[in-house]
Write a structure and sequence with these properties.
This protein is α/β, with parallel strands linked by helices and 584 residues long. The chain folds into two domains: 38-173 and 249-372 and 398-566, Alkaline Phosphatase, subunit A; 187-241. It is 27% helix and 17% strand. The chain has helices at residues 59-66, 81-90, 94-97, 124-130, 187-212, 218-240, 244-248, 264-281, 313-335, 380-383, 410-417, 434-437, 530-547; strands spanning 34-40, 69-75, 134-140, 164-168, 251-253, 256-260, 287-292, 342-348, 357-358, 361-362, 384-390, 399-401, 405-406, 448-453, 456-462, 471-478, 501-511, 578-579. Strands 1, 2, 3, 4, 5, 6, 7, 8, 11, 12, 13 and 18 form a twelve-stranded mixed sheet that branches. A hairpin with an 8-residue loop joins strand 15 (456-462) and strand 16 (471-478).
Length: 584
């Protein structure tokens, strides 16, 4: 089967309306709930005690699972951050909104990128705000910032329904935090130190020359000294201008920069304080808090108190710090007597990053028995994530649901519970979770789920209505390298197309109910239903393709161009430095 790719066209060239009905949430007692939606970054499904890990300590996540329902077949709409989060916010496959690429870009890489979630997309925050909810995003955004000029904040969270924002407009990159196992300074700090050394040396030379020449020719030195100073400052600015730590590792409160560059090891703690303050301000409700962890994405900034506390190095330390921060958030919910009125949702944005390594040290998560990881299209390890829903008195305690569910399901679920209507002018791919959570349905409303890598359809999942099987058909898979590896260690992320993927004709077929590790493809000789499944899934793909209407591809060049002048600046340009959190 040919790879499915959607080409972009101008928005002005297409006017369309796609009517799509959604089932409303079944009756639940009481007033509209508050919502706390929690996403962890790059967390593997095998990293949590409640999902089978007995070597990491995650008591607060485990408590959440005991007090709520575990979703063990929970699926991200993409295996990379930006597209997965756009689907979470909108309830739609990223390809529908154009939050995908066709040139390997995959995510928004810099605050100088013009890409971002289109303003004509509707998030759950917008719909809940219209229903009188106070809405906040605290943590990672990664859906764009500026588009035309610095400071226009075209893609800012406030443009997508969030009344309050504190966090990173981008995401963590390796330069955001030094490696605690080494003594080397960050490049930015080194440049600052060298500048100071040059200025001190210049002052000493001037002073010595003044003494030797008895101040007779000091005035003659002013011109060359001034020139040298300008050269040094220009050099420093030019060098620092290339540093992603300087320009991309920053924190914002609302539309104001509070730290540039950020002190990443304390950022998580400040975010918990911000979340607690939001809960205190809005304890009379209703409210929606989207708490988007920076943990556990590389470079894994971790406070000293948690360094060395796990048996899995820096990654394990970071997971355990994340769990402790979750505990503080849940403590605030209990203290404010909000527990019974609040639906808490917990998940990861996609699977753990297998190729995140430093030498032989693993810096990414563990995806348990599932094959693959972050960035790997349709393999289960990149898209199967831990899911937990707690709502005391409504959602059954200790329940486990192994039916296919999706991060996209959060959108219609919270919208319906808040008393709003999902948009009728576009396709919504998420399904209301409440019938499953309340035990009113035994089977997922997702008969099919489509798994993209960029704009390329790599795999499809089919859960028949009257069968115990869950079929998975792979049309494209990445070529792992080096040979024998279970990831793409030479490229850090597996590509989605080209000569580094394998196109399968006939497709690979697995029954996840019997082979969740996707270890042994079924064939006509080993599976009597092989032809039936391949034909049925092929028909679903053709129907799905007809529903995906062409839109501009947001993440690819040239639409997503990089403009260094779009990057935010705190303080006096070009020396963009500030720390307004120093009091903490």
């Amino acid at each position: 089967m040919d790879v499915v790719q959607w080409e972009s066209i101008s928005v002005d060239e297409v006017e369309f309306c796609f009517l799509f009905g959604q089932n409303r949430t079944r009756d639940v007692t009481g007033a509209r709930p508050n919502f706390i939606l929690i996403l962890v970054d790059d967390l593997g499904i095998g990293d949590l005690g409640c999902f089978g890990n007995d070597t990491l300590q995650t008591p607060h996540v485990d408590r959440l699972a005991r007090e709520g329902t575990k979703l063990t077949h929970h699926i991200a709409a993409a295996s990379m951050c930006t597209p997965s989060r756009s689907a979470f916010l909108t309830g739609r496959y990223p390809v529908r909104s154009g939050m995908a690429s066709n040139d390997g870009t995959r995510v928004i890489y810099s605050l100088g990128d013009t890409a971002g979630l289109p303003r004509n997309e509707t998030t759950f925050a917008e719909l809940l705000r219209d229903q009188g909810y106070s809405t906040a995003l605290i943590g990672k955004w990664h859906q764009g910032l500026n588009r035309h000029v610095r400071g226009d904040h075209h893609h800012h969270p406030s443009q997508h329904g969030f009344d309050y924002f504190y966090g990173m407009p981008l995401t963590l990159v390796d330069t955001c935090w030094p490696d605690p196992s080494r003594d080397t300074e960050l490049a930015f700090s080194g440049r600052m130190g060298r500048l100071v050394q040059h200025l001190i040396a210049l002052a000493v030379v001037t002073f010595v020359l003044g003494i030797v020449l008895r101040w007779f020719c000091v005035c003659c030195l002013l011109v060359p000294v001034s020139v040298l100073l300008i050269v040094l400052l220009s050099y420093f600015w030019s060098e620092s201008h290339q540093s992603s730590r300087y320009w991309d590792c920053l924190l914002m409160r609302g539309h104001d920069i509070t730290e540039q560059p950020m002190k990443a090891e304390r950022a998580g703690s400040i975010m918990v304080e911000e979340a607690t303050a939001f809960l205190e301000r809005n304890q009379n409700g209703p409210f929606l808090l989207f708490f988007s962890f920076l943990h556990v994405h590389t470079p894994l900034p971790t406070a000293d108190a948690f360094l060395g506390t796990s048996s899995h190095g820096l990654y394990g330390d970071n997971v355990q710090e994340m769990d402790a921060m979750l505990g503080k958030l849940l403590e605030a919910v209990d203290r404010l007597a909000l527990t019974n009125q609040t639906l808490v949702y917990f998940a990861s944005d996609h699977g753990g990053h297998l190729e995140a390594r430093r030498g032989q040290t693993q810096l990414g998560g563990w995806n348990g028995r599932f094959k693959g990881g972050k960035g790997m299209g349709g393999w289960e390890g990149g898209i199967r994530v831990p899911g937990i829903v707690r709502w005391p008195g409504q959602v059954t305690t200790g329940q486990v649901i192994d039916e296919p569910t999706s991060l996209m399901d959060v959108f219609p679920t919270v919208v319906a519970l808040a008393g709003a209507e999902v948009p009728q002018d576009r396709q919504i791919d998420g399904r209301d979770l409440m019938p499953l959570l309340l035990g009113q349905q035994q089977h997922s409303e997702h008969e099919f789920l489509f798994h993209y890598c960029e704009v390329y359809l790599h795999a499809v999942r089919w859960r028949p209505r009257h069968s115990p099987a869950t079929w998975k058909v792979h049309y494209v898979t990445p070529v792992f390298q080096p040979p024998g590896a279970q990831g793409c260690y030479r490229s850090y992320f597996c590509p989605c197309s080209g000569d580094q993927v394998t196109y399968h004709d006939p497709p690979l077929l697995f029954d996840l109910s019997r082979d969740p590790s996707e270890s042994t493809p079924l064939t006509r000789d080993t599976e009597t239903l092989y032809d039936v499944v391949i034909r049925k899934v092929g028909e679903a793909v053709r129907e799905h393709r007809r529903s995906v209407l062409p839109v501009p591809i947001q993440l690819s060049r040239p639409r997503n161009r990089h403009d260094p002048w779009l990057r935010p600046c705190c303080g006096l340009f070009p020396f963009c430095l500030c720390d307004r959190e120093g009091r903490r």
